[in-house]
Amino acid sequence: MAAPLIHIDDMADPVVTPELAAWRAGPPDFPCPMSADEVLARACAATGLDDFGEDTGFRQRLGVILDALYADAGLTRGGQVFVLGQAVRAMANRLRIEDLVKRHPEILDMPVERPIFIAGLPRSGTTHLVNWLSRDDRLNSLTLWESEEPVPAAPLTPGEEDPRIARSTAYWGAFGALVPHMAAMHEMAPHDIHEDNELLFMDMNCYNWEFSARLPGWTDHYLAHDRTVSYAYEKKVLQVLAWQRGERGKRRWLLKSPQHMENLAAIKAVFPDATMVVTHRDPVDVLRSLTTMLGYSDRTRRSRIDPPTLAALWAGRIEKLLRECVAQRDAFGPDQSLDVLFHQYMADQEGTARRIYRLAGLDLSPETEARLLGYLAENPRHAHGKVVYDLEGVFAMDTAALRERFSFYYQRFAVKQEN
Q: Is the pLDDT of residue 3 over 80?
């Protein structure tokens, strides 16, 4: 049976329900705006800790993020509060990480050997790929709730639900009620495997900030500076997570993020024995999907939604990401890396998995393959419906001009132009 089609016909002018109005306003008891020092102080107050560890430049990056945030004139107070809340949470996480490592220095002896990284444009199949490969119980992977709070705020009570899971479930349940079609584009389920770029939040170097607001000043700063130090901090967080998992922590890590596409050299420097899988999809089709997802969720955080301006911003951002990918792709040689074309992946998912396993030096037993195939059977594409995209109409983008703009990428990789 064909998936039902979903037409989002109120992209630019959504109906503002009382619930949506409250979300846009944000909680009245949360201070807004805040300075960088106030963000750090709030994190200290929330944790009772005050040691952030070595200043890897995160304080400066936090200041740049906040300057860019307050320059986004179309963001509502609730939109600002969301980013501020993320910053406080990230800094509280850093405090807890540093405290745990200080009390247990053996954590830094935990091996992070031969991790498998998946990189690829947003909307290029990376989430689907990492979730079904994570069915292999020889690998460590990262759930959404765990990426949001890697270290518990207090000792856990055996037999009771981890309060971090409850917090993640409550937040994403409330968000999903406001934008119910998001599940058809990118469902945020606490127990699903998520992006490890969340771990870069703890060093204030995660590109996810850009999904929550229009931050060109932050983007320019981020791309102008080396990100190796932040991937080194991610390694520390992975060691903390592995130590908390005990024996399970000794497994190889399976990680994924679109952000990795523009950080291949940094990843190779920090994880020299990594396996790198890079997915490639027509960036025009990526923009069709990405602009719709971001434009639809903008109703929760912007007082005025301007789809053409959003699309123009992200066309530029995708171009920057792809140029970094092309420039850095040779950081990983053919013995450690694989390019996966989206149309080939969709046509032969099982064959793609076998190629990845061969590259990573993992055997694919019949039992493991059966577990992997079970995920595919349980999670078909478009299970929540198929969104109809209109890049040319709603977002006023010229497809031919975009293809010319991305010609350098088509020349480097044999990406199939989808529409």
A: no
